[in-house]
Amino acid sequence: MPKKKLWVLVIIISSLALGLTACLSTLTAPPAEEEPPAVATATETLAPPTATPEPTPTATPLPPKTLVICQQHEPTSLYWYSNSRLVARHIHEALYDGPIDNLGYTHQPVILEKIPSLRDRDAKLKQVIVQAGDKVVDAYNEPVELAEGMLLFPSGCRSAACAVEFTGEPVEMDQLEVTFRLKANIKWSDGEPLTAQDSVYGYELRQDPETPVSKYTELRTASYEATDELTTRWTGLPGYFDQSYELNFYQPLPRHLWQAELGYEAADLLTAPEANRTPLGWGAFTIHEWIAGDHLTLTPNPHYFRASEGLPHLDTLIYRFVGDANTALAQLLSGECDIVTQDADLASQYELLIELQEHGVAEPFFSPGPLWEHVNFGIMPAAEYKQPSVFADLRMRQAVAYCLDRQRVVSLLRYGRTVIPDSYLPAEHPLYAAELVTHYPYTPEKGRALLEEVGWQDTDEDGIREAHAVPGARNGTPLEITWTSTSQTLHKQYMELFRQDLAECGIQLQLENLPLPEFFAQSASGPLFGRNFELSSFAWSAGTEIPPCELYLSTEIPNEENNWSGSNFSGFSNEEYDAACEQAQQSLPGADEYVAAHQEAQRIFSEQLPALPLFLRLNIAVTRSEVLGFTLDPTAASELWNVEELDLQQ
Questions:
Q1: Residue 21: inside a domain
Q2: Strand blocks (E) in 151-300
Q3: Smallest Cα–Cα separation from 363: which of 47, 118, 630?
Q4: Mean pLDDT lowest for which of 95-99, 135-139, 343-347?
Q5: Which domain holds residue 457?
Q6: DSSP at 315
Q7: Same structural domain for residues 580 and 637?
Q8: What would you report as the CA-atom Rg of the chain, rounded to the nearest whole angstrom?
Q9: What is the pTM of this model?
C-alpha cells in the first residue's frame, strides 16, 4: 500500500483515538471532595424526612436523519428523456420508484401488479391478416410498408428457413400483445393520481421526433394505449418478436402538469425547468433545492405510496457532486458523505478500501457485476496473420484453460471478492446452465498432458515446448504465443500472472498491451476486429436481461463484407452452436424452448471454448458504518435502487 495512503489511514485512526480519549476524560473526572457526615447530638430534635418527588422524565427527540450521497458527476438535467439520464440515475431512484427494477438478473414490479408473461396470458401472440400497404416487420427485423417481393415471417415462423416472399395476397402473421396493470393509489408528489394515461404520455413523448432518444422499439410498435384507469396495452407490429416485451411499459410522466396545465410540447420539455430541474415523481423523495456545482437536496414525498410502511426512513437526502474518488473518500472519512457511489472509480482505491474496512472506518461493498473478463482464442485469424492457428485445435484451447490459475488472479488482484464463471452468464442468472457447462479448474498436469498429445514436447528440457509432428508447424518450432490486450492496469497485471502460469506448462508468452483506440480499431489491420491475434482479452457484458449468445455466432465473425463490425473475434464457427443460439433468439421469454436453447448454447460454448471466462468484474461502493439497509445488486440500474429503505443508526 502506498505510504501516502497509509499516512492518511494513520491520521484518521489517530484522530478517532484522540476524540475517544477526550470523550473518556469527561466521563472519568475525579469526584468532588466529600464533606464529613453530620452527627446528631442528644439535644437535637430530628424532623422526619420529607419525600422529594422525582421529575417526570422527558424523551429526548432524535435529531433529523440526513443522508449524504457523493457521486462523481452532476447531471445537466433530470428530465427522463435527456442525454444526462445515465448520470442522473441515482437521483431518479429517489424521484421514481421503479416502475420496474432489475434485481439479480430478474425483473421485479414496483408500481405494477406483476411482470407480464406468456404463461399468464397477459403477454400473447395473436394471428392477424396483413395485406399490401400495412406496416409490418419484415424477415430482416426492419419496419416496412408491406409490398410485393418483401420477405416476411408468416404465422408460426421465426427463421429464414420458413420465410416467404409477399406476392400481394393477404398473409397471416403473428402479432405480440402485452398488458400491464398499475397498482392502485399511486400518486404524483403533488397529490394527483398517477394513471395509465401518464404512461401513454411517456410513450407519446418518447416517440415524438423532437425527443432525442432512440426510436427502435417505437418504430416497431403498432400501438400503446390505456384500456382503463390503471391498464395499458402494448401491441407490436406484425412480425416483431420483442424478447424484452416485459419492459414495454413506458415511464409515466405527469400529463396533468406538463401538458394540461403548462401546455408544453415535446420540444419545450428539453429545457423547461419543471421537467429538467424540479420534475414531479411518485418516488420516496421530491426536489427541495439544487445548488449548481455543489449539491442537490431532496425531502420526503408526503404522497409516497409506501408511506404507511414508515418509508422513507430519512428526513433529508443530499446528493453531493465530487470530482474523483480521492475527494469522495476524503469527504466520507470526514463525515461529509455517507455513501460513495461506484461511478467514483473506486476500483483505483481498492487497497485503501480494504484497509479502511479492516480498521472499521468505512464499509466497502463488493459485488460481482455483469462484466466478465475473458480471453479470446484466435481460432480462425485473418488470412494475412499467422496460419494455421495453434488454437484451431480444441485441445490447445483446453490446455490453456487448465494451465491458467484464474483463482490466484482473483485472490491477488481482487482479494477473492469475485467469482470465475464457466459461461458467458454468471451462476446467478436464471438461465445459467449449471448442469450442462464444462468446468476447467486449475489443473496444469491436464494441460501439459494435452500439449503432449498434440505434439508439443520439451525434448531439450529448456522449459519451452517445441513442435513434434504438430500439423502445420515445422518440427522444432518453439511454442511461443502472443497475448494482446489494452494498456489498462488490470490487464497488465493479470496478463503477467498468466504468463507465469503458462511458463509452468512450457508455453512462452509474449505480452502486448495497446492503447484503447489501437486495440479496438474497427479495421482489417486492427488486432481485435481484424482478427490479428493469438490470444486477446477484454471485458464483455453478460447482459442484464437476455443472454448474449450472439457474440459467437458464425454470422458475427468480423470480415470485409460486414465492414469488420462483428463480435465473434475468435472466428469460431459451429453449426450446433449457431442453431441453438438462433433458436433462443427466435423464441420469446416464458417459452420452454427459450430456456432450453439458451442452456444448450452455453453447453456448446463451454465445451468448444471460443473464449475462456477469466472472472467477473466488481461493482464497488462504500458507506459509513452508520448507514443501514445498503446493498449492491449486480444488475440494478443504481446501487440506490432501495433508497427509500436506507436508514442511519442513531
A1: no
A2: 151-152, 164-165, 171-181, 221-228, 231-236, 285-291, 295-300
A3: 630
A4: 343-347
A5: 370-618
A6: S
A7: no
A8: 32
A9: 0.87
